[in-house]
Design brief:
single chain; about 210 residues; mainly beta; Immunoglobulin-like; 2 domains; five-stranded mixed beta sheet; four-stranded mixed beta sheet; 1 helix; about 45% strand; binds copper (II) ion
Length: about 210
């Protein structure tokens, strides 16, 4: 074997080894995490509170994969669906009966009232949400059904479970306004707080929510 070929192969291996090492290190060190606990009074637990960064610098593309809002056992699943602006949502019916999907005009004026129609098990409809806002989803066949879509500017959000904790990962370093929001503002009023995220670190931010 020619010696120069051996040398070239050797240096390629070393170079790609460095590149892999650099990437692994870079991912861990370039972003930070926000985490905390939600205490809520006047509701059973903080489930369905959405914690999100109000505005992050830059433009965020929606994921190529559509989000799914199902109607299953007479409830909207999930109850609250946060999405990045521009995301297409597939509205599915998994029940052996007809469901309808309609929403009221959003409070911020971005969305007019709309009715996607009524369809049966296994069918679906699609809608692309290209403005920020909060949509209250209803079914005009089952008055007790209610779901929520929250259209956000960036993917840095977390839906809180019954245990009341949240974690937002991969956040670029910077100072942000973080909002803790509940789908029924009369039960839990939204609150916001400032937080600074540092690379490779976790910032703690707790919220106490109530009617006021
Ligand atoms: Cu229904």
């Amino acid at each position: 074997m020619n010696r120069s070929v051996v040398t070239a192969v050797g240096s390629m291996l070393i170079w790609s080894g460095f590149a892999m090492f650099g990437t692994a290190l870079g991912q861990a060190a370039e972003t930070g995490t926000i985490k905390g606990e939600i205490t809520a009074s006047g509701v059973r637990n903080p489930e369905n509170v959405v914690v999100y960064i109000k505005q992050a610098p830059g433009e965020y593309k929606p994921s190529a994969k559509p989000a799914v809002m199902d109607q299953r056992k007479l409830v909207f699943v999930p109850h609250v669906l946060p999405i990045v602006k521009g995301t297409t949502v597939v509205f599915r019916n998994s029940d052996p009966l007809l469901h309808n999907v309609n929403w009221l005009a959003s409070k911020n004026g971005a969305y007019a009232a709309n009715n996607l129609g009524t369809w049966g098990q296994g069918d679906s409809r699609k809608f692309t949400f290209d403005q920020l806002g909060h949509l209250v989803l209803l079914c005009n066949i089952h008055a007790e059904m209610e779901g929520h879509i929250l259209v956000l500017q960036n993917p840095f959000f977390s839906v809180v479970g019954k245990e009341g904790t949240y974690e937002i990962k991969d956040v670029p370093p910077g100072s942000y306004t973080v909002v803790a929001w509940y789908p029924q503002p009369r039960k839990l009023k939204a609150k916001s707080a400032e937080v600074t995220v540092e690379a490779g670190k976790t910032a703690s931010l707790d919220f106490t929510l109530g009617r006021h």
